[in-house]
């Protein structure tokens, strides 16, 4: 008596499964998707604007422009659930221009000097998905990341020439304070004592700090920020402590894996 209903239900499930399989097959990304940057255009993740992207994707995109030009990529929307990632490479994937995940638009990216190509790799796992990404590309012979009169930081921020070597980290990754030929100051033999007294908000009832507040500059002179020039958020990915003039102590997961 219930066989027709069971049959209809099974048929409906089969149709849904077939549709889902067709969607997945459509975006197995066996080929490299090519884009011509001689005209302005956009690149988006699979099914962007319709629904979340699929699990298990490994999609490659190549954006090319005419010889003698450079390409600029500007992110319009970015919602990529970690650890899913979008990696941006230079020509022939010889250089890494950045690896991005999360929910904030990455800063604009310009192809390397003398290169008219940008490569993208979008990889997803089998867990939670996101909305995906939408980026706009353009090209030209005089494309620059920063406006006229500004210099470029390694993390793609910009700063004014008169801010170079002024003792203030305008870039956020320290590159505006590099190669400044500042005289080396010989520190006293005593180690582990701050010249500048820090402000502490230690709570004896807690075994860890969450949130906190900015420290007084130079009050923790042995604190180290480990940074990667190919990542977002000023490049910081781990902390460490100076234990002598050549060695930094940090956690194992920061350098292994």
UniProtKB/TrEMBL annotation:
<dbReference type="InterPro" id="IPR018114">
    <property type="entry name" value="TRYPSIN_HIS"/>
</dbReference>
<feature type="signal peptide">
    <location>
        <begin position="1"/>
        <end position="22"/>
    </location>
</feature>
<dbReference type="InterPro" id="IPR002172">
    <property type="entry name" value="LDrepeatLR_classA_rpt"/>
</dbReference>
<dbReference type="Pfam" id="PF00431">
    <property type="entry name" value="CUB"/>
</dbReference>
<feature type="disulfide bond">
    <location>
        <begin position="153"/>
        <end position="171"/>
    </location>
</feature>
<dbReference type="GO" id="GO:0006508">
    <property type="term" value="P:proteolysis"/>
</dbReference>
<feature type="domain" description="CUB">
    <location>
        <begin position="29"/>
        <end position="140"/>
    </location>
</feature>
<dbReference type="Pfam" id="PF00089">
    <property type="entry name" value="Trypsin"/>
</dbReference>
<feature type="disulfide bond">
    <location>
        <begin position="165"/>
        <end position="180"/>
    </location>
</feature>
<dbReference type="InterPro" id="IPR000859">
    <property type="entry name" value="CUB_dom"/>
</dbReference>
<feature type="disulfide bond">
    <location>
        <begin position="146"/>
        <end position="158"/>
    </location>
</feature>
<dbReference type="InterPro" id="IPR036055">
    <property type="entry name" value="LDL_receptor-like_sf"/>
</dbReference>
<dbReference type="InterPro" id="IPR043504">
    <property type="entry name" value="Peptidase_S1_PA_chymotrypsin"/>
</dbReference>
<dbReference type="GO" id="GO:0004252">
    <property type="term" value="F:serine-type endopeptidase activity"/>
</dbReference>
<dbReference type="InterPro" id="IPR009003">
    <property type="entry name" value="Peptidase_S1_PA"/>
</dbReference>
<keyword id="KW-0732">Signal</keyword>
<protein>
    <submittedName>
        <fullName>Uncharacterized protein</fullName>
    </submittedName>
</protein>
<feature type="domain" description="Peptidase S1">
    <location>
        <begin position="209"/>
        <end position="257"/>
    </location>
</feature>
<keyword id="KW-1015">Disulfide bond</keyword>
<dbReference type="InterPro" id="IPR035914">
    <property type="entry name" value="Sperma_CUB_dom_sf"/>
</dbReference>
<dbReference type="InterPro" id="IPR001254">
    <property type="entry name" value="Trypsin_dom"/>
</dbReference>
């Amino acid at each position: 008596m219930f066989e027709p209903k069971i049959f209809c239900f099974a048929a409906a499930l089969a149709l849904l499964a077939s549709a889902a399989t067709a969607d997945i097959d459509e975006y197995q990304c066996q080929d490299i998707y090519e884009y011509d940057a001689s005209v302005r255009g956009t690149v988006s993740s699979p099914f962007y604007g319709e629904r979340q992207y699929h699990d298990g994707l490994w999609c490659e995109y190549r954006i090319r422009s005419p010889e003698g030009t450079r390409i600029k990529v500007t992110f319009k929307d970015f919602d990529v659930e970690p650890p899913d990632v979008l990696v941006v490479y230079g020509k022939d994937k010889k250089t890494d221009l950045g690896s991005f995940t999360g929910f904030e638009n990455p800063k604009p990216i310009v192809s390397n000097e003398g290169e008219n190509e940008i490569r993208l790799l979008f990889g997803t796992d089998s867990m939670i998905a996101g909305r995906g990404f939408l980026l706009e590309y353009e090209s030209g012979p005089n494309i620059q990341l920063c406006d006229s009169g500004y210099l470029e930081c390694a993390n793609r921020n910009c700063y004014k020439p008169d801010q170079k070597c002024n003792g203030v980290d305008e870039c956020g990754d320290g590159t505006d304070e590099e190669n400044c030929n500042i005289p080396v100051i010989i520190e006293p033999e005593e180690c582990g004592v701050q010249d500048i007294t820090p402000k502490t908000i230690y709570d004896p009832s807690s075994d860890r700090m969450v949130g906190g507040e900015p420290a007084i500059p130079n009050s923790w002179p042995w604190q180290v920020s480990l940074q990667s020039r190919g990542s977002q958020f000023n490049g910081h990915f781990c902390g460490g402590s100076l234990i002598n003039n050549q060695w930094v102590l940090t956690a194992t997961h920061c350098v292994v894996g």
